[in-house]
Amino acid sequence: MAEVRNSKKACTVNALKMSQPIGGALAFMGLNGAMPLLHGSQGCTSFGLVLFVRHFREAIPMQTTAMSEVATVLGGLENVEQAIVNIAKRAKPEVIGICSTGVTETKGDDVDGYIKLIRDKHPELDDIAIVYVSTPDFKDAFQDGWARTVTRIVDELVETAAPEAPRTQKRINVLPGCHLTPGDLYEIRDIVESFGLEPVFLPDLSGSVDGRIPDEFTPTTLGGISVKEVATLGTSAWTIAVGEQMRAAAEALEKKAGVPFTLYDRLTGLAPNDDLIALLARLSGRPVPEKWRRQRSQLVDAMLDGHFFFGNKRIAIGASPDLLWSVSSFLTEMGCNIEAAVTTTHGPLLGQIETDEVLIGDLEDLEERAEGCDLLITHSHGRQAAERLGIPFFRMGLPMFDRLGAAHQTTVGYRGTRDLVFEIGNIFIANAHEPDTETWRQTAEVSDDTGSAFAAH
Predict the structure, then answer these.
(1) Helix and strand totals (H; E) in the chain
(2) H helix or E strand, kind and range, residue 128
(3) Domains recognised in the chain with CATH numbers
(4) Cα–Cα distance measured from residue 238 to residue 262, given in angstroms and rounded to the nearest whole number
(5) Per residue in 182-210, pLDDT tens?
(6) Global model pTM greater than 0.85
(7) CA nearest to 386, candidates 357, 400, 401, 366
């Protein structure tokens, strides 16, 4: 059991965490025809926009209410109204997702009240869904913003199903955490569909930022789950939530529409994927396809091959709580020791990580604790620390701006876990100590007496 502590430093040095508003904005990007709108200054939106463009290498839709000092003091109704009306006129979105920022949260803008006034004044907005979520960036982190936004979408857009209403037995809701990539969602979709089931993802980043060239430009998100599909989630037979952060959204959906759920704290590793496959076999009434039996066997063999290189390796990880839990749990199963664990915000599983301490801190804290480790795992901002420490570096999480294919990195399912074993195992092999004639030499000189004894023989 780990002791979870907060860093006591006066300031953040080389930040590990990202803010709630951009976590919420990314969740809105999983809706089709969406326009995320940050209610704050232009700088808040510019930061998030640049971060997402560098990570996904795609055109990112995001707008701002452009609050000035005067507007912040007097209230943002006029700015919110102008932003919504302009977006509706120029972008013609299906949904406008509004995330608050620290500036407007400190002022205390009643955005829900603003939206009611704006709708009364502008009937042309009747066909556009407008969802507001409180995501102050002076507290919590990226994962919290994502989780709160998904829960708010469920509360606002999912229709309440009557108790006697028929359910679509083949339809399965999937609520993925922000630590899953579009590539991970593709893998989960493939697994669910192989049982004859129909997965519906909320949010669905695999449809909007998965790296494809559209036939024509659109100012809103291209792909993802539609507002109409979100409304029907209450008629699905089951919900699968991935990541502890999604528990609140799954509970909200169960409370509102009576859809039961199963939550997986991770889908990286052998046992959690066995549980997922067993659930899908039960829900579908079908036997497990040979494809997954084969991939499971490949994963077991990969773990057997790799454990020689993973055993007793010292690992330092900096990641959001659910990603930290997923990766550290699997590496512990492979025989590694988690020597340093730094995260961004509180989470219920942090105390269960097999290490002495989990620190809610920054990359400077991680660097101080990673000295002497065999591998450093975090996002791209950790590359300088790894270079200074002279240890191998494996990139995981967001942002990843100095490598191609960040959106397609896959670490879930049997195949994704197998490939993770190979990627990290190959890093260990490439940096292993290779003995040579110099390293075989004894450090201490052999005494004359010993030499004489050998000579006598």
Answers:
(1) 18, 14
(2) none
(3) 16-154 (3.40.50.1980), 168-294 (3.40.50.1980), 311-411 (3.40.50.1980)
(4) 8
(5) 999 999 999 999 999 999 999 999 988 98
(6) yes
(7) 366
